[in-house]
Design brief:
The chain is an alpha+beta fold. 31% of the residues lie in helices and 17% in strands. It has helices at residues 42-55, 72-76, 101-115, 119-131, 150-161, 168-174, 254-271, and strands at 14-20, 24-29, 35-37, 147-149, 184-186, 190-192, 202-203, 221-225, 229-234, 239-245.
Length: 272
């Protein structure tokens, strides 16, 4: 029997790990060693690798990058004006939050040129290997190409609960809203008046509807992917949840079940 009743609503294989900073893993469901595609959860590792490069002096957050008027900070925060997947900018930087795989791939090319190796190799050298993420494959797009196990995704979650790869100050900046007040579409969940984003991390804030459900703190950050994947970190509870599955994101399945599941996770954490 699943730890959380909502898990039984999935008719395909899924895996979920929930952990806290102090107690480690507090619940485990499904085959957490099985490798699944991560899709856009990939962006979290790319963001961390970019921030490592920033602290190492290879580039700065406010140097020009991408379209005219855009910076590294804009690319990380989906505020450069670049579209989802291809083409030139559709608007000036910092006008709206336009979720962009192209923006992250543009960022990856810049980081790679500065550190002297392809971005996927930099992610592996600076994030995957130091954290011991032995199942993670860093191939394809640095925006949506990686895969790995739920166990390794949670290991990365522990890093986000207590960062060692970047400084506490930069981590705080990365997981707080950048360019506050920008509206935009959260893929799969519609237009948000305040589509808050940090430096590669989506910020929960007051988005409605949202994949985490209303019970997590407004400061919760993370990402979900079109493979039916997510990782969130609630700094108020000092807790994290990692979810992977066999089928791609479906609004009527994941979009409906995830908020209920995450409410059950939060209720169990609060009852501990």
């Amino acid at each position: 029997m699943a730890t959380y009743a909502a898990l039984d609503r999935f008719d395909f294989d899924v895996a979920l790990l929930v952990a806290t900073h102090d107690d480690g893993v507090v619940s485990s469901d499904g085959d957490v060693a099985k490798v699944f595609p991560w899709k856009s959860v990939t962006k979290l590792l790319t963001a961390t690798a970019t921030l490592i490069a920033v602290e190492a002096g290879h580039l700065t957050l406010d140097e020009p990058a991408g379209p005219e008027g855009s910076t590294v900070r804009h690319l990380l925060a989906h505020a450069s004006g670049l579209p989802m997947d291809a083409g030139g900018p559709t608007q000036p930087p910092e006008k709206r939050r336009v979720y962009s795989n192209l923006g992250f791939e543009t960022l990856g090319e810049l980081v790679g040129s500065r550190v002297g190796m392809p971005i996927n190799d930099w992610v592996r050298a600076q994030v995957v290997e130091p954290l011991g993420l032995t199942s993670v494959v860093t191939e394809g797009s640095c925006a949506h190409g990686y895969s790995g196990s739920t166990a390794d995704l949670m290991t990365y979650g522990f890093e986000l609960l207590d960062p060692a790869l970047i400084s506490a100050d930069l981590h705080a900046d990365a997981t707080a809203t950048v360019f506050p007040g920008l509206s935009g579409v959260l893929p799969g969940f519609g237009r948000q008046t305040h589509n808050d984003w940090g430096l590669g991390f989506e910020i929960r804030a007051d988005k409605d509807p949202h994949w985490t459900g209303p019970g997590v703190s407004s400061t919760t950050f993370g990402h979900f992917g079109q493979s039916g994947s997510f990782l969130w970190v609630d700094p108020t509870r000092r807790a994290a949840a990692a979810f992977l599955g066999d089928k791609g994101f479906d609004t009527e399945v994941h979009g409906a079940i995830w908020p209920e599941l995450n409410e059950q996770v939060v209720a169990a954490l609060d009852a501990r």
